[in-house]
Design brief:
About 45% of the residues lie in helices and about 15% in strands. It has an eight-stranded mixed sheet with strand order 14-24-23-16-17-18-19-15. It is elongated, with a radius of gyration of 33 Å. The relative contact order is 0.06. The structure holds adenosine-5'-diphosphate and magnesium ion (2 copies). One magnesium ion (MG) binds near residues 730, 767 and 790.
């Protein structure tokens, strides 16, 4: 029998074999090291072990077959290329072992430098460096420290204490003052620490060091903090990390050596020009670890002009090649520059827009690409007011920016106190170690929420985002003492009533009140800043990209607005109509009394009187809105909430009745209300007598609204305006419901409209799962569908929207049952499927059926892409979300590959 030849799977790639598009396989770091190698840039030679090897290791618990041999082969060819053997006693090759996943996870995983050093090769290293003992022992102590900490879980502080101790013994603060003997002593101390914690000696065998380090990098993918980070950043858990083995270059060889990090543009503002830090005589991680003070990169020009000029040339080259802002890590070894890392750099929201605009100007990218590189979340961030931060304001702590915005207010520690002070008109910041469902009222009352524990998916963060409230979570420098009503931070004690300011975008916490300034992007949308003449680069860039998005998008964007003022603002923000005009607010305020009369009406006569009194008020509301939206469609939803929502709460009525009786006053009306409230009480009001059911049960109610709408439209048209009303019936689950309402409405419309030329469409919301599933039938009676995805989500999942987010969503997020609340981004698999079915079957029954969405999802970036893909005609969202929806609709239209901008 012929031996079957098995083709061995390729797990290891030389840098020369990879390129930047292989991030899935080689991780971001490895793919970009390969790319730079192939560009001819000075990268120390090395190889990358693939994410597939990592995944195989993590699933089986052992290295896959063939991996060891491939590492051996690549190591040998690296040794040949470098003319040195790993850990050779006389002339050692040293390597770093570096993690690198597809998406950068800063500080989450592990890197070990100087692998290959031991008691003998440390001497060889010194000889290599011309007898530089200090350097050799410094490198060795770093290896034991990093290896101990990351490979063997020795507590890092122990090494730091030993280092501090050595410096103290020497009477210095600066690690550079330690000489070769001091460092040799430190190596001994480190070895003891290592042995104490691991029960074994520090491994002397170079290849064993290498294998253990590689394995540690694999394992670091599943370290707790890495898991948490991925969850927060929504990075899939099954990608695995690659491992890069890179020959060492040394920035710690003396004053003519050093190491640095740099950006090719300012990642904060997007301004052109290089930004970076440099540290002489240091190894990699020292720069970010803050061990010594770095100098601005510009000073490298004085220290080493040749390397500086070369670095600038390389940075320009990288920008041109990647056509984007890059960040880099480099090391200079005795005047020779080495590139150790590059990637497309993270940036702030403002910088994202500014840089995209600049790159278009520079001819590096086109407008489609610019649009692709920004997103709605960034735009939304830029629309929040910001703190006006002069240098006098220094943050006292930094937590996680859990829900954006800027808020100042008096500190309170309990929900009850928050409610009390807010009722007195005070702005309050609720401070807790962490919040729980009992804090809900306080969270509603507060301007902002500050916690010392918990991440982006903590209770505080989730609930605050749901409410659109500023929140900083996990500010762990805060010692919160709720019983004592104080917190301490950096030596300050802050008590109840003291003022603090929190920035929910940056996570920073300030003592005292920081002035807030309006967003220039909002000023632009409001028409207060002219994009042609302003010298604000951000406004110019936003204008340009928005204009392109508008030209590109297929989805129209409408707004949810119930008042003329909201409608006007939304129109300035680019709304192309109203997708949801709720009529229930027209029953509030001093009109409540009429609603009470309606509810309490004892006969047809009284009811008709109440409705007749409501009619002109409603009509006036509609006239105002139709005028503001002149020429654009306005979808008016007939009354939706259960009527008892308009009555006072039961407890309050009961008290009123009791008090009035005590005083001997006439309680007839109060008692009537009380019994109405008792009669109308529902256990599940969201599933009760509301929406179309009200219209079918209470004679004349919908008729009055339809008449008000039609009369308002006629009035506006008679005045020379253009009114385009669309009447929307809520909560329909069966076509018969809609047909009944429709028959009555059509009669009224025909009568009112006459020959005025006004056209009124009648359609329905699709928000009950049954409606989605019988959309083909419903479409026979509807000229349009508007998906009410809030209720569709509520009823699709069986989640009581008003309760679940505060009660247990944090836990669902923690467990990864969903990555984001389905009320925030539409659940495309379930609720989205209902939308898809209804869209398809509705359009099959009535070609050209107008389709829109009016839930909160209409302004959510990810959901907008989904609605685009389902083929809806428009999304409708709150006025402030209109620009976000415009941008995302444009992005959805141009996105072909769905590549991500992480
Ligand atoms: P991170 O992903 O946390 O930045 P890196 O793998 O980039 O970790 O390594 C940490 C530091 O060590 C970086 O500053 C890097 O430049 C430096 N470093 C990594 N490999 C080498 C090497 N072969 N020679 C010199 N310095 C290195
Ligand atoms: Mg790095
Ligand atoms: Mg609804």
């Amino acid at each position: 029998m012929a031996a079957q030849e098995t083709v061995e799977h390729k797990y290891v790639y030389d840098f020369a074999e990879g390129n930047k598009d292989l991030k899935d396989l080689l991780g971001g770091k490895g793919a970009n090291l390969a790319e730079m190698t192939n560009l001819g840039l000075p990268v120390p030679p090395g190889f990358t072990i693939t994410t597939e090897a990592c995944k195989a290791y993590l699933t089986t618990g052992r290295e896959p077959d063939g991996l060891a041999g491939q590492i051996e082969a690549h190591l040998e060819s690296l040794e040949r290329a470098m003319g040195r053997r790993l850990g050779d006693p006389d002339d050692p090759l040293l390597v770093s072992v570096r993690s690198g996943a597809k998406f950068s996870m800063p500080g989450m995983m592990e890197t070990v430098l100087n692998v290959g050093l031991n008691d003998r090769s440390v001497v060889g290293l010194s000889n290599q460096a011309g007898g530089n003992d200090r350097f050799a022992w410094d490198s060795y102590r770093r290896l034991i420290q990093m290896f101990g900490k990351t490979v063997c879980e020795v507590p890092g502080e122990e090494f730091e204490h030993a280092l501090d101790e050595a410096k103290r013994a020497k009477g210095t603060q600066n690690d550079l003052d330690l000489d070769a003997d001091d460092l040799r002593g430190l190596v001994d101390a480190y070895k003891q620490i290592f042995a104490k914690h691991t029960g074994r000696e520090f491994p002397q065998e170079p290849r064993e060091q290498l294998d253990l380090a590689i394995r540690a990098v694999f394992d670091s993918w599943n370290a707790e903090r890495a898991i948490l980070y991925r969850r927060q950043e929504r990075i899939p858990a099954d990608l695995g990390t690659a491992v890069n083995v890179v020959s060492m270059v040394f920035g710690n060889l003396g004053p003519d050596s050093g190491t640095g990090v740099a950006f090719t543009r300012d990642p904060g503002s997007g301004a052109q020009g290089i930004y970076g830090d440099y540290l002489a005589n240091a190894q990699g991680e020292d720069v970010v670890a803050g061990i010594r003070n770095t100098v601005p990169l510009q000073e490298l020009e004085q220290l080493d002009k040749t390397s500086y000029d070369q670095l600038l040339g390389i940075m320009a080259r990288l920008e041109e090649h990647y056509k984007d802002l890059c960040d880099i890590e480099f090391t200079i070894e005795r005047g020779k520059l080495w590139m150790l890392q590059t990637r497309v750099g993270k940036r702030t929201a403002a910088a994202a827009f500014v840089i995209a605009g600049q790159l278009v100007d520079e001819g590096l990218i086109d407008l489609d690409e610019a649009l692709h590189r920004v997103n709605g979340a960034q735009l939304a961030q830029l629309m929040f007011p910001r703190f006006q931060l002069d240098h006098e304001f220094q943050p006292v702590a930094k937590g996680i920016g859990a829900s954006p915005g800027a808020a100042s207010g008096r500190v309170v520690f309990t929900s009850a106190r928050a409610v009390e002070l807010a009722a007195e008109g005070e702005a309050v910041i609720l401070v807790r170690r962490e919040t729980n469902p009992d804090d809900l009222n306080g969270m509603i009352a507060a301007k902002g929420i500050l916690t010392s524990r918990g991440g982006k998916t903590s209770h505080a963060a989730v609930v605050a985002r749901g409410m659109g409230k500023t929140c900083v979570s996990g500010a762990d420098e805060l010692e919160v003492n709720v019983p004592a009503k104080t917190f301490t931070v950096g030596g300050h004690t802050v008590g109840e009533g003291d003022v603090v300011s929190i920035d929910g975008t940056t996570g920073k916490v300030y003592l005292g009140e920081v002035p807030v300034m309006p967003s220039e992007v909002v000023q632009y949308f409001e028409g207060e800043l002219d994009p042609e003449t302003t010298d604000d680069p951000l406004v110019r860039a936003v204008h340009r990209i928005m204009t392109h998005a508008d030209a590109a998008r297929r989805l129209r964007v409408r707004t949810n607005a119930d008042t003329g003022a909201d409608a006007a603002r939304a129109r300035r923000f680019g709304a192309e109509g109203i997708g949801l005009c709720r009529t229930e607010h027209m029953f509030l305020g001093d009109r409540r009394e009429l609603v009470e009369r309606l509810i309490l009406a004892s006969g047809e006569r009284e009811r008709d009187d109440a409705l007749a009194a409501l009619l002109p008020l409603q009509r006036a509301d509609f006239v105002e809105i139709f005028r503001e939206m002149d020429g654009l469609p306005v979808t008016v939803r007939l009354i939706d909430p259960p009527l008892h929502e308009f009555l006072p709460p039961l407890e309050q009525l009961a008290v009123n009745v009791a008090v009035a009786q005590e005083r001997g006053e006439d309680v007839a009306k109060e008692e009537a209300l009380l019994s109405a409230v008792r009669r109308m009480h529902e256990e599940n009001p969201m599933l009760g007598l509301r929406g179309v059911r009200l219209g079918l049960v209470i004679p004349g109610l919908f008729a009055m609204q339809v008449r008000a709408i039609a009369e308002a439209a006629v009035a506006v048209v008679r005045d020379g305006g253009r009114a385009c009303p669309e009447i929307m019936v809520p909560l329909v689950g069966a076509v018969q419901e809609l047909e009944t309402v429709r028959a009555e409405a059509e009669k009224i419309i025909a009568e009112v409209v006459g020959d005025s030329g006004v056209e009124v469409l009648i359609g329905t919301m699709i928000e009950v799962p049954r409606a989605a599933l019988t959309a083909g039938q419903i479409a026979e009676a509807a000229e349009f569908f508007s998906f009410g995805t809030n209720d569709l989500t509520q009823m699709g999942w069986g989640f009581s929207r008003d309760d679940v987010e505060g009660a247990f969503f944090w836990r669902y997020l923690e467990l990864g049952i969903f990555g984001i609340s389905p009320f925030e981004s539409i659940d495309t698999d379930g609720v989205g499927r209902l939308v898809r079915i209804a869209a398809e079957e509705g359009r099959a029954a009535r070609p050209g059926l107008k389709l829109g969405v009016c839930g909160e999802h209409g302004g959510d970036p990810e959901s907008v892409h989904f609605f685009h893909s389902v083929g809806l005609d428009y999304v409708s969202c709150s006025p402030f979300r209109v620009p976000v929806a415009r941008l995302e609709a444009g992005r959805a239209a141009i996105s072909t590959t769905g590549s991500d901008s992480r």
